[in-house]
Amino acid sequence: MFQKLKASLGIGAAKVDTVLESSSILQGGVLKGNIHIAGGEVEQQIDAINLKLCTEVKIENDNGVSYQQFVLDQIQALEPFLINANESKQLPFELKLNDETPVTALNTRKNQCRVWLETVLDIDFALDPKDRDLLQVRPLPVVEKVIAAIEQGGFSMVKADVEKGYLRGGNFSSKSGCYQEIEFKNSGLLSSKEIELSFILEGEWCTAWQKLIVDLVCEAINIVLLPCIAMPMRRKLLRLPNQY
Fold first, then answer.
1. What are the CA-CA distances from residue 211 to residues 72, 87, 153, 161 (Å)?
2. Which residues make Cβ contacts (< 8 Å) with residue 225, sequence separation at least 6?
3. pLDDT mean across residues, the chain
4. 14: exposed, middle or buried (C-beta count within 10 Å: 0-12, 13-18, 19+)?
5. C-alpha distances out from residue 166 to 53, 60, 74, 104, 162, Å
6. Helix (H) or strand (E) holding 18
């Protein structure tokens, strides 16, 4: 009885460790790995295993700026099972990244974008054991090309974060409830220009959303940056195939 009480407090309880085939993954890729469960000092029933793909979002309101965990996607193994004392179990899994998962592999000092996989064992009347694995999400080639074109146009990436909310424009709307924003600046002698860039995957397409003061023109395989004569901010959508 005393051992079960300790286990309910997390002392001598079952533990979980998720081992990924790779923590580096391309946008829209599939995470693969194994969930390792180690029994504690007593038998326990695992009611479910929850895998959550998470990021951290920025929330701005009248009270200032705050940050909170945001679940992009999750899967759950619903079949309850018993884990005996000192028993080991290993369960393979696959999880496709949500199309709106932020890119984390960005070349800027102020990169506030983080993505992780959280594994939680659901055990009644006990502290739920959990594990967290940080992911490196790499951009698709089409995304790399757009970023490279902006940088070749004299802009530098200065900041990247994830904001709570939706992107909407024309017939397009994001779906997850958060979006990544990558900021670029080009400081001149007389003026300073900025671009705020977001990418959303849609199956075989990638939509680039820009709040900018430059025009993005797509010509065959070349993306050319043309400076604007007019200075006010405006938003544009650039829709490209993922294999662009």
1. 24, 55, 16, 15
2. 149, 150, 152, 153, 155, 214, 215, 216, 217
3. 78
4. buried
5. 18, 14, 20, 19, 11
6. strand 15-20
In angstroms, rounded to a whole number, what is the distance separating the alpha carbons of residues 161 and 27? 16
- Most distant CA pair in the chain, distance: 77
Give 80-117 pLDDT, tens digit per residue.
889 999 999 999 999 999 888 999 999 998 999 999 99
70 CA to centre of own chain = 9
Q: How far is CA 83 from the centre of its chain?
A: 32
Token pair listed for 209: 């959303």
**Predicted confidence (pLDDT) per residue in 127-149, tens digit:** 778 899 999 999 988 888 888 88
pTM confidence score: 0.80
Tokens for 154, please give them: 């004299």
**What pLDDT digit, counting tens, does each position of 47-87 carry?**
999 999 999 999 988 888 899 999 999 998 768 889 999 99
